[in-house]
Amino acid sequence: MDIDNWDEIRTAYHVARLGTVSGAADALGVHHATVIRHVDALEDRLGVKLFQRHARGYTPTEAGEELLRVAQVTADQFSQLAGRLRGRGAAMTGDLTVTTVDSLTPLLVPVLSGFQAEHPELTLRLMADSRLYRLEYGEAHVAVRAGSQPDEPDNIVQRLYTLRYALYASSGYVAAHGRLGEDMSAHFYVGPSDEEHRAPFNRWLKANTPSDRVGFRASDARAQVEAVIAGAGIGFVPVWWAERLPGLEQMRPPQAEWDVPLWLVTHVDLHRTAKVQALTTRLKDAAKEWP
Fold it and tell me: Where do transmembrane segments lie in this chain (predicted)?
């Protein structure tokens, strides 16, 4: 097998991935006869059947599954290469993708918006969800991550900020149930859906609060804050966020053991590009002014 066979391998990969000749032809932008010819030629060359043909399409054999696994790795490596090439150079143009968790968007969006306004030829993409985007595959240029220090190889990691957390309740909850005293069991709480959540403040809540008193649980941090605002119970809210919410009252002040560090992460191959350097500098400057 040599470079002359790559088109046949790529064709077989798309057939295995999509399950039909027509689907592979559409994905590759070729005629379905070309797909059939490539698959047949590859099977002849290898001396093994890669697919079982049936009325509904093509199903990979064990050999076909092996080809699919290897071809997927190759496709990922080409994606990684493409992402790196797109980010190179000194131009402040093209895409600039930032990934973070949804709960941090109120902090980041004003900074990102101002940065994009200064560089209108950039398209800034903010991917705000729980998925861990892989910088080494070019899925994002910059990541802002919370929690333990990221340790992926080939990433450059810088401390950005420390999120301070305190216990809060709505004014309505305090009027109905009073303020938090020493007896934690006398109140209701808002917590995460996952009782084993690794955030330090959630571990503290589990260790110090009867589980049956956590009457409202949510998987999303923003939903938990909304539940506290709605009066569902006492819950942890970042101090910077609570300062923007006049209807909340602090039940317990921040404690160092509840702190969560924020990390600014870039890939070594993109770290020195002009647009990544400019954005990371802007984020670090902005973080100095955050509450």
Answer: none
